[in-house]
């Protein structure tokens, strides 16, 4: 341990990769369920079915009392949306976040999709560029000396796209708990962030909005919404850093297809 950071062995990372594949499958099922006319509870049920069928445990269900296996956040809801009877409408921007535990080891990932036909190019731009900022951050991690470089890569994509990182909400370490040190910022900050070292496992998760970076929390004490009602997107992957490179734990191919554009080849732990 260093500064509260839990360092993993490669064997432990391999267990996390098993968890990550289950999370990826759960998100794929939830994404397929996020269609116009479906409720956010039905989206959650699709993710739950996969996690249970795979023999894993949800790390969202019961977390500080959270009542579902996934967060389903729609339009101005940025993160932590509680699934329920809200009906998804044509063109809604739907962010889905979930995770799994295998043999005590966690994974965490999120995607954003547009239900049916997009209402306009701005929503497509929001979703695609937030996704791009995630992969830019992951690619930066492959060679970064400090986590500052990951934050800078995410912010640069956001700036170029005219989007804004949500203030106060960040990525995190992951391992024997879903949320661990260190924080992984989505924007530049004063002061230096921790050094990148082999054994780290990190959840990188940009949350970008089309309007203000400020947010509010609804009366349910969970759902985070943009303060001005502007739409938001959220993408996340869990990544392992080891002596020979990085591996995206929540991508079936370890991130190979997406990282190729950056000249990065992921290496399995």
Mind explaining what this structure looks like?
This protein is an alpha+beta fold and 269 residues long. Helix content is 29%, strand content 25%. The protein is built from 5 helices and 15 strands. The chain has a 5-stranded antiparallel beta sheet with strand order 8-7-9-14-15. Strands 1, 2, 4 and 5 form a 4-stranded antiparallel beta sheet that branches. The chain has a 3-stranded antiparallel beta sheet with strand order 3-12-11, with no helix packed on it. α1 packs antiparallel against α2. The two termini are 20 Å apart. The mean pLDDT is 97.
The CATH class designation is Alpha Beta
Q: What is the CATH homology-level superfamily?
A: Creatinase/methionine aminopeptidase superfamily
- What is the radius of gyration computed over CA atoms, rounded to a whole number of angstroms? 17 Å
- What is the CATH third-level topology name? Creatine Amidinohydrolase
Q: In terms of structural class, how would the helical and strand content be classed? A: alpha+beta
User: What would you call the shape?
Assistant: globular
Q: What is the topology, as strand order, of the major beta sheet?
A: 8-7-9-14-15
Looking at the overall shape, the CATH architecture is Alpha-Beta Complex
Percentage of residues in strands: 15-25%
Number of DSSP E strands? 15
How many distinct folded domains? 1
- Helices and strands, in order, run as HHEEEEEHHEEEEEEEEEEH
